[in-house]
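Assemble and predict.
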Amino acid sequence: MIEPTHASIMEPQRISVKFAFVPPVNVPHASFILFFHRVIQDKLLPETLIDVADYSHVHNGPSVLLIGHEAHYSIDATNGQIGLKCAVKRGLTGSLDERIRRTFDKTLHLANLLTKHESLAGGIQVNTKSAWFSIEDRLAAPNTDLTFSHVAPVLASVATRYWGSQPVLSRLGTAKETFQVDISGADGSECRAPTRTLRLV
Amino acid sequence: MAFLSKGTAMTHKSWKEVLENATDPALASEIDAFETELLLRKQGRIEEKLFAEVRLRRGAYGQRYDNGKRFDGYKTQDIAFPSGGITKGPSTLWDAPGMQRIKIPFGGLFPDQMDVLADLAEEYSDGILHVTTRQDIQLHYVHIDDTPDLMRRLAAIGITTREACGNSVRNVTACPYSGVCKTESFDVTPYAKALAYFLLGHPDTQDFGRKFKIAFSGCRDEACGLTAMHDIGALAVTREVDGKVLRGFELYVGGGLGAVPYQAKLLSDWVPETELLPISQAVCRVFARLGEKKNRARARLKFVIQKLGIEEFKKVVAEERTKLPVDSRWTSFLADLSAAEETPRRDPSLLTISRRPGEFDIWKKTNVRPQRQAGYSVATITLPLGDLTSSQMRALADLARKYVGDNVRATVEQNIVFRWVPDADLPDLYKDLKALHLADPGAGTIVDITACPGTDTCKLGISSSRGLAAELRRDLAAKSAHLDEHVGNLHIKISGCFNACGQHHIADMGFWGVQRKVGGRTVPHFQVVLGGKFEQNAGSNGLAIGAVPSKNIPAVVSRLSTHYAENRTKGERFQDYIDRTGKAKLRALLDDLITVPDNPNYYSDWGDPRVYSIGDLGMGECAGEVVPLAHFGLASAERQVFEGQLLLDQGQANKAAEKAYQAMLVAAEALTRQVFYDVGNSPDEIVREFKKRLCEETTLFHDPFAGDRFSHYLFKVHGSAFTNMELDAAHRRIEEATLFIEAAHACYARMNLPAAAE
Ligand code: SF4
């Protein structure tokens, strides 16, 4: 009887961004678990964090998850490439542009911590030449050309700020999967968080 | 519905609007009601205990740390959930993620359902689906605000989460091989389905003191149904009478694991198929009436039977059976038993020698079971710790479409089976599963370990059952090629605490989590339980022989299995070897492993580098709170009045007035049921009995000051048509209904005044 929540492509609540690691990844799985526990212990992220979940037993899944209220972070191998994924679940506000930027900022911030943290002993390099982007909301954003036509201009504009020049966007996945896009920097350019845009709180 | 999971349309609608026409209206309105209850709880208009049981009965369960406290390895930190003090149950914060249990009766799934389950895991959970020991699917880390849409999407594909948790009839389980098994008496599937849906939401199952579990098995000797550990265990049997083969069940009652396991007792060696539903209903009514309501530790059916004795219990059930009003559903399903028959996707065929990929035979040996129907087999997809990713589930749905169609089931061993695989397709299926990394061999062997959630997500977990299971699995899989065949066939089951959700009592080697204080440190341990029997429907329970530090459990498994392999007599089974060897000798064998060495590694648990602590244990929700039935009725009445107000705000006068009437009816029914349980369901019956028993024969409903005024609010609108109502009039109806419900609360309070205060 309460008013239903309407899904809108321009106001998604669930956005994910993933950066792959540069292979080979020689860090033991246990170190990632330790790292995520340290993120909670030392309050390294300015958001509500809950727990760490170990899914190393499943293949090509979220092998270690840092569970948060607003977002889950994972050492993710879902598409066969191990990397850092940030899946924002709630709390996004503002325009689509702002929502995408917030998700990028969160991912890049943790990626930065990950490459420097003592528990991983500098064993991780993040490949920022490309990123995987997804909207996990099949109602608002089915994986179709139509969704792409709505999202791509905004995504391209946001991505240009991070890559410095306009990157190449390619829609990925099947119709059953979530809406997902590969973002690749033109001429091998790398994604960097424009300092002024890093807004995590 | 299909277009939504395939994502071909874009919409600015809500799931509720989009799925309106794809959902059974009854299911849809239940979910709408639940969504309203969420809102009322957020506004503080439903008390937290009641709301906790309401959400549990919708399968929305609490998870570890939902009290907002977590030990991080150094200190207990507060988790700053933004919802502040709003709770969804006692000590359970609103924003804390929870577990959503999804009931899959007898584990039966079809590909479109698998697709949607995969979608839900990806969108609302963490991308992982977990198969449970009751053939349910569970999603973790789900926010309560997301549950109504999640439930709607399930309802649209014919799945309900109703009564998945709480003091209710849990998922009805059945052997995953029913209908295709060589040793079964007959296919129990349609019976399991009929009983599951008959008891779902049935008034006679709403007033239990604790959960109630039912299982079906097609035969006596195999393990699959585990009927001996259930409140009702139905074992298929046939009898020949006048040359005709009749179907029926041996019905067992009062089994259960938990802290003290009980083997079920025989209620009747012959319950004809026509009597299965009414006898089960009678057992439920006896449980609701005589079961303990206050002391949860003694509130299962097994304690009723222990108290009465099985012979007396049989008499009480027989008597109850005679009182039941006839219900056409008892037998209507029998008219069309063939409706449950499965259609294979492909024709039967034979496996040829030449088409075998490498390692196929190893997989086939443990994971393929020939069906009764020539040319077909059941293939088991082993899921590590019962888990699979959304992508794997979607890919499995596609493989099901390719090879077996709708013939997929989840198993109590936390795996998935494909039924009706043509034998010639097995090598191709194997290759396809291998590509998904789902072709691990070892189904039903020592590497196929069952574990409950334990400290990973359960509020009561003491030790990391999943962490230990993962470690043992890794260790044993590496050794599996060289394991003695008899060792390879053993079963390991692990629970995170004595509650036994991992079914440790019925394993060859079972473990349950405990802790010990050693030199000022708390050290995670597991009690070692040996000699339980999975076969013969969980034929016997094992015995604990002592607690061993968690980190030494792999050594326990290795030592016991080696000793068994080296010392077993010809043909000796593990249980017999345990009996023959004796507890003292077995314990001596493990003596050195019981001591905690001076090694910091022992102060943390498997898969968790934090220093071990149980300081952040939560309160259990296994059975929810015991909330009297009348409270649900009165809360439902209040919700309906609230919905009436919303309708009024939208200018829908007729509907608002009708809601107000329904709210009074629900409250009247709740009160009348207090004095006359079999009040009936129709509005006429309710109003008649309410009037007679609370307003005429007694004046229980009469207000000390207003007399019988409030009851007339109901009587005057009963039988009215709700057409052409003015907004004003509808408004009055809402106000009258509100007063009626207040009077109902007062009446209920008077009815329950302690005698001394009367
Ligand atoms: S056995 Fe204990 S730890 Fe495991 S799920 Fe049950 S209550 Fe939780």
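Residues 9-197 of chain A form one domain.
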